[in-house]
Queue: 2 jobs
Job 1
Amino acid sequence: MRLPEAEGLLADLASRMRAEVGPETGLVGIHTGGVWVAQRLHGLLGSTVPMGTIDIAFYRDDFARRGLKPDVRPSALPFDVNGRDIVLVDDVLYTGRTVRAALNMLFDYGRPGRVRLAALVDRGGRQLPICPDFVGGFLTVPNEHAMLLLRRTDSGSLELAMEEDVGGAA
Amino acid sequence: MQRNPQLGPKGELSHLLTIDGLPKDILLQILDTARSFVSVTERDVKKVPLLRGKSVFNLFFEPSTRTRTTFEIAAKRLSADVINLNVATSSQTKGETLLDTVANLAAMNADMFVVRHASSGAPHLIARHMGPEIHVINAGDGRHAHPTQGLLDVYTIRHYKEDFTRLTVAVVGDVLHSRVARSEIHALTTLGVPEVRVIGPRTLIPRDIEKLGVRVFHDMDRGLDGVDVVMMLRLQNERMNGALLPSANEYFRSYGLTPERLAKAKPGALVMHPGPMNRGVEIDSAVADGPQSVILHQVTFGIAVRMAVMAILAGNG
C-alpha cells in the first residue's frame, strides 16, 4: 500500500498544534520515533523549554513475555513536571499500550498540570481507552501483523515504512 | 564444548555467576541498561514496576552489609519483594545442606536468588539445581568471583573515561585472595582495555595471573606510571601479621596509595576501591577523600548496575 509522506503529516500536525500549544508546554518524545517527531515540533512550535525524552521499556506491560529490549535509552525530563502542561509525542499511535506506559512513567517524575497526546499517524486498532488530541493523519492498516514505523534518513527527513511484525504488537 | 552455565539456549543471560566467559555484548547490554537505571534513580519516584510480584531472596551465607543492602535497594527499586536471609545464623547451623535450604526457599515461590558464600562455586551449584524459571546472581563466592562488583567498576570507569580501548588500568593489592580482582580483570579485558596491570607483593599475586592477560608489577611506583585508573583492593585484616605480610605499617610503606604515589599516574586518574576501606593500610585518607576518588560514586552506580542485572535476568524467562 502507498504510505503518506511523513514530512507532510508533520507539517499538518504542527499547524494543528500551533494554536493550542504554548512555548511553555513541555514536549515529551517517546523513543525512538516519537523523539524525532518531538524534536521537529520543538523547533516548529518555538518551544522555550527544552524537550524531554522517555523510553518506556521499564513500564511495558509485556515485559514478562518479551523481556527487556537490549537497547533501553536513558530518559530525561529537563524541566519540572509538577503542574506543567505536557504533550506526549509518539510517531505511530496503535494499541495505546505505549501511551499507557508513558503516562505511568511521566507520573513518576511528578504531577503534571495537564497531559495531551500528539501522534504523527493514528492507525486505529486501540486496545485501551486512549484518544489523541492532535494527529498528523489517519491511516488504515488492514494487516494487524504489519508494523507501521517511522524512519529517519541520513539527511534527517522522516519517512514511514511498513514491516512484518516479528515480536507481537507493541 | 560445554555450554556456559550462565547462558540459556539462545545465548541469553539466565544467571550471573562470573564475568569469565561472558560475551562482550552481554556486558555492554548490562552497562547500557544500567545507564537508563541511573536516570531512574535521579527522579522523584525512584521505582519502576518491572519486577512487580516477583520475590528476590538475598541469601547471605557470609556477612556483608554494603553488597546486601545495595542488592536489596536495587530489587526494591524494581518493585520486587525482597526477603533477606542470613543463613549463617539459621538452618545451616542446624545441619541442613545448602541445596536443601535453597530447595525449601524455591518451594516458597522464589524468582531470584542473590547468593554470597564463603565457598567458591556455591552459586554455580545452586544454579545447576534450579529450574529455568529461577535466576541466580553471585554476590561473591570465596576467592572466585564477585561479578556485580566487577560490572559496577567498569560502569564507573566508562562513566568518567568513556572509551575502554585507550586505557591503562592498575589493580593494586591482595590479588591472591580477591574475588573482586578476578572479576575486574575479566571485565576490563573483555571490554577491550589494552593494558591491565596488577601491582602487589610477590606473596599476594597468584603465580599464573599473567594468563589472564595482565602485566605484573611488584614496584608500585613503576606500576602506577602513566595509568588512567587505579583500582585498589581491600587488604583483609586476617591476612596481616601472618606468613604473607609483615605488618600493616610496612604494607602501607610499600603499597599504600598516597598522594605522592598517585602523582605517578596520569593527571586526573581515577581512584577506586570496592570497600570497605582500611585507611592508612592500603589507602591514605588524603587520596580516599581527594578529588580523584570516585569511591562513593561506585556505590551509587552499583545500585543501577544491580538493577540492570536483575531486570535482564527476570526478562529472560
Job 2
Amino acid sequence: MAINMGSVMGIIFANMHDNTISEITKSRTMGSVLFGGRYRLIDFPLSNMANSGVSEVAVITKENYQSLLDHLGSAREWDLARKKGGLHILPPFGNVEAGLYRGRLEALYGGISFLKASRTEYVILSDCDIIATINYKPIVNAHVESGADITMVTNTGVYTSDVVSTSTVVTADEAGRVKGVLHKPAISGECTISLNMFVMKKSFLIELLEDGIARGHYSFERDVLQAKVDELNIRTYEFNEYFSKIYSMQSFFKANIDLIDPENSRKLYNPRRPIYTKVRDNAPSKYDLECVVKNSLIADGCIIEGEVENSVLFRGVKIGKGAKVKNAILMQDTVIEPNAVVTNIITDKDVTIGENRLISSSEVHPLYIGKGASI
Amino acid sequence: MFNKKECVAMLLAGGQGSRLYALTQSVAKPAVPFGAKYRIIDFPLSNCINSGIDTVGVLTQYQPLVLNEYIGNGQPWDLDRMSGGVHVLPPYQKASGSDWYSGTANAIYQNISFMDRYDPEYVIILSGDHIYKMDYDKMLTYHKQQDAACTIAVIDVPLEEASRFGIMFAHDDGEIYDFVEKPKEPKTTLASMGIYIFTYSKLKEYLIANENDKDATKDFGNNIIPALLANNERVYAYRFDGYWKDVGTIDSLWEANMDLINPKIPIDLYDPSWKIYSRNPVMPPQSIGKKANVQNSVVTEGCYIDGNVEFSMISNGVTIEEGALVLDSILMPGCVIKKGAKIEYAIVGENSVVEEGAQVGSRPENVENRDEWGIAVVGHNLTVSSGSYVKPKQIISESV
C-alpha cells in the first residue's frame, strides 16, 4: 500500500560536511553554499522533499546560519509556508553542559520535542552534500514494504579514495540487507556509498535517540549503523540517476562545471520536479555587441561584454569589455573588470577582479577567492 | 472594516488587444510576454509597489485565465497583503442584472464598491499596455499641490505620431483647457499616457453622472475628461520625461522589446532601486552551448542555446538548436527553434515550434517592395513545419 507522503517529515542537516569545503563555508552553512548558477545546496533536498509531497520539513543548523535563514525566509518558494506543517528551523539546542552538538544523534536530540510533537509517522533525513533530483516517494514505499528499520539511499559504483574516505560505505546482501558498515575508510574501487539520506519510522528514531543519548553516543554512522548492523534491519535503496557529491573543493568545482554539459543538466533538472530557490528578481541577462560566450551556464542579471568559456556565472555577474573568463565559477555579483583574464578560479559573492588583472590557476586546484575580496 | 488607503490603483486590463492578433487570441494583452521574463502587466504592478501603492484592482474581462493565474495572490509584486493587495475584478452579476464592462469609465463605475471599502482620498487609473518606469507618488504629490480634481500624465511625442494619442492643450502652469482624442491634425504634442489621478469624490461624482447619461460611451477620454473640462474643474497635466512606450501593436511590441537591447534607450531594468518584478518560472540557468553565438541579445533562465542569436529577446525555456539563426526577433517562453531554422524580424509565440529548415520572417533589404515588409508573427502553441516559410508581415494563428 502506498504511503501518504503527508505522513512523512523531512529533516535536513544544514551543517553536515561543512569541513569538506571549509573555505566556502567559512561564513555560511553547507546548505547555503552557492551552486549551479542560482542555487544553494539546500535547495536540492528541500525541493526534492517538497516535490515528493513532504509538507513538514525541519532544518537543523549549527553555526553560521544567518545566510541560511535569509535564504529560506518563510520557505514560500518551496511551497512550505504552511499553516499545517511547513518549514521549521531548529537552531542548535546547546547548553553549558553539552555545548554544540558533536554528531547527528545529538543534533537530532536537540529537536526531540519537535519530533515528538509532529503528527507525521515517517522521517527522511538528508544532508546537503548530494546534488540530485530524487523522488522520495518510492523510497519511503520501499522502506515500508521491506519492513526495514532503516533504509539508506546508496549508490554502487567505482569510486576513488578521495570520495570513499569521506563517505560511509556499506556491504549488503543481494536482497539489499546491510551486512557491514565502514565509516570513511581508506579504500577505493567498486563500492556502495551512502548518499547520506535515510528513511525510518519517527517513533523508531526517537527510541534510537533516547537510548543513544543515555549511553553517551552521538554518531549515527558509528553508534547506530556500524554498531547495530547485525541487530537492526538496515537496507539499501540504490539511487542510479544523475547525482554529484560535494566532498572537496575540487569536487565542488567539477560538480558545477559538469552541469555546463546540457546532457548532464537535462538529467538533473526535470521540468516536472523543479528545483526551487530564493527569487531575486533579476532582470534577464544581457549579451553585448562584442561578447563571446561558449559552453557556459549563465544565470539572470548578468551583463556580459567580454569572453566567457566553460564557466558558470551566477546571478548578477558582470564581465567587462576585453575580459577573458575560462573554467571559472563566478558567484553572485562578481565583477570582472575590462581586460582582466581569469582561468580556473572560483570567486565567492561580491568579488571584484580589477582591470587588466591576470589570475590563473590549475584545473586540478582551482583558486578560491573569498567573499567580497577586491583584487 | 478595511484600513483606509490614501490612494488606490485601478488597472484597466480588460482590453482585447485585437491589434496584436495572434498573440492575444488566448491571452489578454496585459498578459502578453515581454522583455524575456516579464509580462506587460509587470510594469504597472511594479510601479505601484515601488511607488508605495499597495492596493490595486485589476479589471479583467477578455480571456482572463492566463492573467488571473499569473497575478495569483500578488506575491511576486509584494502585493499579497492582509489589507489591500492586488484584487482581480471581473464583471459580476448584481441584484439588478449583470453587465460586461462597456467602457473604461463603466468598468471603474462598476467597481465603486471596491474602492469605497478603502475610503481613499485619491484613485489612480492605469492601463495594462504600456512599458515604462514611473513614480506615481511624485505624480500624486503634484496632484495635491495643484489641488486638482484630475491630473493626467502626459508625454511629448513627435508631431507625426500625435494623431494616435489623446492630445492635451495646457497653460504654462499645467492646467489643461482642452483635450482632443486622436486628432487628425494635431496642434500640440502633449499626449495623454492613459494615467489619471482623481480626487476620489470627484471621480465618483463624474462616474455616476456619466453612467446616467444615455448617450455617453462611458470612456475616460471621450466622456469623463471632457465633462470635467466643461465644468471648469481643475484638470492638470503632469509631464513625464522618461521612457514610455505603448505596446498595442505588433510593431510597437517588437520595437519596445528591441529597446531593451539598445544601450541608448533609457529604460534600465538593472536598477536595484526600481526593480520590475515578475512571477518566476523556476528554471535552471541558461545553457550556452559550444556552437552557440549570442550577441547583442537578452536571454533568461531555462534556455538551451546552441545556434546563432543576434539582436533578439529570448524568453525562459527557449531551445535554439545548432545551426539555427535568430536575428532581430522575439522568442516567447518555451519556443523551440530546430536545427537550421531561420527566424528574422519575427515574433514567435509561447511554446511554438519552428521545425528544421523552416523560415519565419525576413530582413527588410531582402524584400523588393518595402510596403510588403513587416514583422512576421507566429501565434502561441503552433508548429511551423520543415520547409515552410512564414513571410514578412504574415501573421499565423494556425500551424503551417
